[in-house]
Amino acid sequence: MKLLNEKSKQGSSSFNVSLLDIQTNISDNLQRTDLNLPELPEVEVVRHYTNLSKSNFGVDNGPYPLGSCTMKYNPKINEIAANIPEFNIHPLSQHNKGALEIIYRLQEYLCEITGMHAFSTQPAAGAHGESTGIMIMRAWFEKRGEKRTKVIIPDSAHGTNPASVSLSRFQPLQVKSGLSGGIDLDDLRQKMNDNVAGIMITNPNTLGIFDENILEITETVHSHGGLCYLDGANTNAMLGIVKPADFGIDIMHLNLHKTFSTPHGGGGPGSGPVGVTEVLKPFLPNPRIIKKNDETEFEQSEESIGRIHSFYGNFSVLLRAYSYIKAIGSSGLRNVAENAVLNANYMREKLKRHYHLQYDRICQHEFVIDDSLMPNGITTNDIAKRLMDFGFHPPTIYFPLIVKGAMMIEPTETETRENLDAFIEAMKAIKEEAENDPEKLTNAPLKTPIGRIDIVHAARKPKLTWHST
Amino acid sequence: MGNPIDRKYTKEHEWIKIDGDIATVGITDFAQDQLTDVVFVELPEKGKQIDQNGNLCVVESVKSVSDIFSPVSGEIVEVNNALENSPALVNNDPFESGWIVKLKIKNETELDRLITPEEYNKFLTGIE
Amino acid sequence: MDYTPNTDEDRESMLKEIGVQDIMDLFKNIPENLILKSPLRIPDQLSEFELIRELEKISKKNKKPLSFLGGGNYNHHIPSTVNAITSRGEFSTSYTPYQPEINQGTLQAIFEYQSMICELTGMDVANASMYDGATSLAEAMILASRIKGKKQVLVSQALNPFYREVLNTYARASEIKIVEVDIAGGLTSDFETEGSSAIIIQNPNFFGLIENLEEIRKKAEDILFITSTTESLGWAMLKPFSEYDVDIVTAEGQSFGNPMNFGGPGLGIIATKQAYLRQIPGRLAGETVDIHGNRGFALTLCTREQHIRREKATSNICTNEGLCALAAAVYLATYGRNLGKLAQLNNQLAVYFSDKLTQIKGIDLVFDKPFFNEFVVKIHKDILSKLSDIEIGISLEKYYPNLEDCYLVCCTEMTPKEDINRVIDEITQ
After folding, report:
1. Taking chain B, what is the end-to-end CA distance rounded to the nearest angstrom?
2. Which domains does chain A have, with CATH numbers?
3. What CATH code is assigned to C66-75+338-428?
4. What is the DSSP letter of A66?
5. In chain C, pLDDT over 90 holds for what percent of residues?
6. Which residue in A315, A313, A325, A257 sits closest to C93, CA to CA?
7. Contact criterion met (CB < 8 Å) for A417 and C287
8. Partner A contacted by B62 (CB < 8 A)
9. Residues A441-456: pLDDT tens digits?
10. What is the ipTM of this complex?
11. Which pLDDT score is estimated for C306?
């Protein structure tokens, strides 16, 4: 499809702006002399993007079992909520009690759901929540005058974990996963000492397994004075079933764009609120939103790590999450976890007959298969590309790193039984093609607007704007 | 592709060819195969002093970024500028035109720690 | 509402297939004593109409008087094209385009967005977005420190005070020292570059004033020149940063097609010279071809990112502000070259307002220097009481103790002459 600048025609714009008869105070030598933005009439702008959207695939198009991302259905009522005009105010307006009320109530609900004592909604995404949480960890030990330099991270962790740890100048210290998929307790006990600030875990982990040793894990860390950080990306499997605070978590983040149904937007905006236990409350980012005498207000804490966002986080995302929680209610939240886990186990049970399942045990909301049994050199990448021809977005591939050729599948609770069966049938068909007609896979995708993309070419000669040659 | 016998190797899959006090360094066929298509090589500056096992360069492929560590200590005297426009040389001709740097060796005794082609072949069969 | 479609029959037959009796058998890895025995203390479900009624009730606790607030978040008209496009489910309900073949829409849109940001700033490469203007500046600070190897940066006091707070937080975490540069007459004053990696200048600055970028570049020859912009509309009127040899441009792009939304989501922008291409954090969409030779787009240079480089990554960013960048792209495509006129109109309205205000006794223009669409006035307390139902501007004394009774006033096309005249009338009555 042509680019905007290739369609540009000077003088064709629909968006004329009438100027006033007022002299500017900016001298000519400070002003630009040209502005080469493309010029298109409104009809062509709308057609351009409408046609681009047809080359895109979202949850609204079909199943999107991208493991670890929780691509559940995004209720449209959330969009209505987010567009209520009275909520669209300036962040420094004094007439903000409605907005503050939403943030405050959401914080309270997130506390109830997780067992944490306080939340900050400033982090704009999960990774942002992670780095904020690690900063809180650092501040805690600094206050106690303890110099701890490391944070333990399992080898199955998402890449944002070690990256977030490094941001606060901690050294990631890797701990092995055991044969059953959980953390190797012996390795943990060996590595945990007074020089380690704590652990950063995901539970259920990236294999989709709830670590049955979780209490021993957090106890081991606590016994050496360390803190436990939970990457809450997989909270979809825990809603209403178990609270992270109850299994020893001190700090955690949630991904509102995962668990709480806010749209992924093609790469955001998300929201990664960070929650803490009572003793860590003073370190939360400033300002905090609290209630005094039944009135919401801002509060500044002297021990806060400071501000980590220009304002209070992604408010319209918070509003959508609040709307979702209110819409489905208490029993609805539990329903989410039960059905997410049911759907994943159903798929796991049926797919393990055709694909290798390294950890053959009950999973939570996601599970990992791999390409080790594939004939004719067919890889996970080939399977993913061919799935597109069957009308599905592929699962997450090549993650977690501890499973070679991993394919992480997370159906979510909003998928119908019929769609789950259709996905399973597609995977069966692909396995057969791998045996009898492998070229269909290595040349896939065959039915998409564009064929298999050359990513080597993209990286060898990076062309990142329409200006560069 | 066999591993040439006119040079030494390391267990980190680097090769090193000595000519007087100049050592040419590159990565082996096994290494380039693991990396898959190389898209960029971050070359060090000429004149830089490197310790043995210090960061020599960074080789970037579509799938990963690998730090290459120096098998010996020395001073960088030349870098393979052809890699700027043709990083694929590392994949296609890892032992010859895909060389990465030339170092002036500081400490000859370090060469004893390198392994022979036979030892490297044996090491590879252990991994594969 | 209940978005889980499984019927009782579905559940029963699926449990059978799995080989368990009860759904709770699937949770047996969780220590029994941790399983919640009672429901969460959250109200039970609502229908759509009940939900909206409740939310509207809460929303009425907000008020929207005539407002001249700016300072990092701006009230601009959002063209009707923007929401028409961003509300399309193909865009809003997809995620990061890891699989390029079925995400060419997002990828081409990002590529075009990157191109338009580079056109506006004059830089060689821009990324697909960061969280907001403050955090993209923090990332630029860390980047500069890594490139130059010195753990110290110079920061102008004319930088937005919230941004300075965020920089302090990140500087503490990264062990970078911030040295503040004084202001004189509202503009950045003298500085010494010794020991620093970079200097950070906001332009237009927090007071709305245009900084002397040429002078600053000359004085900062040996360090990196980083700019921050909160009102990016100004770029459509001012000379691009490339004319001043700026190294890294960061900004808040909310003015381009994104509502105020009580401060978020924002749109973090970062753009640099070609030399820093491999150091830039976040996602990049690049042009390439498919197996048939057709032009296509894909995320590229991913190996710098967290999912591959992990602890050595350029940044930990994963989810960014994708849909906000799309909104900005549609906004820029809609206005096109006319964006320059919109910028001029904003400036004209601000000039008009500041002239009218300063004609009134008891109101003075604090910095008599060129500004874009924000300016600072000192308003006598008596006059202020006449403006109780108008948000005249941001009170500055909290952030700059010597600016007592001073307010940062912002004008946009949403505060036309009519609104400005109303304010003048209310005061002069």
Report:
1. 15
2. 77-327 (3.40.640.10), 330-456 (3.90.1150.10)
3. 3.90.1150.10
4. B
5. 92
6. A257
7. no
8. yes
9. 999 999 998 999 998 8
10. 0.97
11. 65
